[in-house]
## 1
Amino acid sequence: MKISVTYREIENYIAGKTGRRVGLSKVSDKEVCASVSQHVIFKTIQIGVNVRVDSISNDELNLTYDGGFGLDLIISGLMSLVKNKLPEASRYFETSDGHHVKIMLSKIEKLKSVLDKVSLASLNFTDDAVVLEARLK
C-alpha cells in the first residue's frame, strides 16, 4: 500500500503547529529541500536544507541533512522549536555528528497500533508529495 501526503498538507501542518512557513520541494526520490524565509537586516533570504532518507523500518527513520556550522545551529534551533511546540516529540528524536537525525518510530505511542499491522518498506519523494510504502503483516 502507498500513502501519499502532499507537501502543501505538510507545510500547512507545520505552520499551524509552529507559526512558521516551511517550503518543501523534491531534490531526488530520496531527498527533499526544506526552506524558510528569514528577514536579515533589510532583506529577506531563503535558508534551505536538503534532507535525505537513509533508511526506514518499523523501529526508526534515519535522515541525513546537508550543512555546515551555520546550518547546524539552525537545525539545533529547529529541533528546539519542535521540542518546545510539541513537547511529546522530544523523546522521539536523536541527533548525532555527521548531520544525522534519528526518529524513533517505535516509541511514538500513536504509531504502535499501525506498526503492529504494517511493515514500512520505503519513503520517497515525488514532485508534489511524500510517499510512504508499507506492506500488511
## 2
Amino acid sequence: MKDFSMQLRYLMDKTLSVAEDKAEEIAKQAVTSLIEKSPHPTGANGRPSPYSTGEFVNNWKVGASVEPSFTNAPIASKEDKISELHSQIDGWFKNNKSLYIWNSGPYVEQVEYLGWKYADDYAPILRTVQELKGKM
C-alpha cells in the first residue's frame, strides 16, 4: 500500500508540474500576442504608425490581481515589453493558481472596439482570444 501511495503522489506531482508549465506557456503566448497586436510606433507588421506613442503597449501588466495604474511613458519596443512580462510570468504558476493580464491605458475601448484609426492595430484582446482558442 505504501508503494502505491508513493507512486500516486509522484504521478500527482508530475501532473501538477506539467500543468504549471503549460499554464506558463499559454500565459506567455497570450501576452506576446496582445502586445504584437497593440498599437505602437513600429505599427503592425513592421509598418510605421506615427500616431501611436507606445503608451498602450507599456500599460499591459500581469499580476495576482488587477491593479489599475496608468503610465504615459512609452516603451522602447514591443520586444522589451514582451521580455518584461515574460520574466514576471517565469515560474508564476509554481506559487499561484491564476494570473491576470490587463491594460489600464485610456485607449482600451478605442483600440479594442472602435479600431485604431491610423493603423492596422485593433482588437488585440479579441484576436488574441481567437488565436489561443484555435490552438486548444
